[in-house]
Design a protein that fits this description.
Blueprint: H1 6-9, E1 15-19, H2 24-37, H3 45-55, E2 59-61, E3 66-68, E4 81-94, E5 101-111, H4 118-129, H5 132-140, H6 144-154
Parallel strand pairs: 1-4, 3-5
Antiparallel strand pairs: 2-3, 4-5
Helix pairs in contact: 2-3
């Protein structure tokens, strides 16, 4: 089985907890620009995010928290990352598989450079999101340093 270096994928500069965006396009634009500025993604990233999300929505209605896992083909990513994003209010997204409407304020942007890691990473998120204590703690954190430590611990 392939192992993923989660600790290396989760960095403080990829944690954005106080966004104030009105919709998915604004969210992808803001996060994409931040990630591009720090070298994680290519210029093609934001367009690729919007294109992929329109075709294959990434929203998930998990037991305790609706989330979204936006990601793109590895050709748009320079360096593997997991960006933890919290918007100030829920925004409209579509559910993975069913395309049903949902509201979401927590996003985990997955920057995958090796496509064989995608399924493993999604499984890890699903495992964590079925854990009420993980979700309860996640939604209480509003500080980048605390979120970084929490995610490092949970993805160890």
């Amino acid at each position: 089985m392939t192992t993923i270096d989660y600790k290396n994928m989760i960095q403080k500069d990829c944690i954005f907890l106080n966004l104030k965006v009105a919709d998915r396009h604004e969210l992808f634009e803001q996060v994409g620009e931040k990630l591009k500025h720090i070298g994680y993604v290519k210029d093609t990233y934001v367009d690729a995010l919007n294109e992929r999300e329109s075709e294959f929505p990434t929203g998930l209605m998990t037991k305790y928290l609706p989330i979204s896992l936006p990601h793109v083909d590895s050709v748009n990513v320079n360096r593997a990352f997991i960006a933890v994003v919290k918007n100030d209010k829920p925004i409209h997204m579509l559910q993975m598989g069913s395309n049903e409407d949902m509201q979401c304020e927590y996003f985990f942007f997955l920057g995958i450079t090796d496509s064989s890691h995608q399924v493993i990473l999604l499984q890890k998120f699903m495992q964590l999101l079925r854990d009420k204590s993980f979700v309860d703690r996640l939604i209480c954190i509003n500080n980048v340093d605390d979120m970084f430590e929490f995610m490092q611990e949970k993805f160890n």
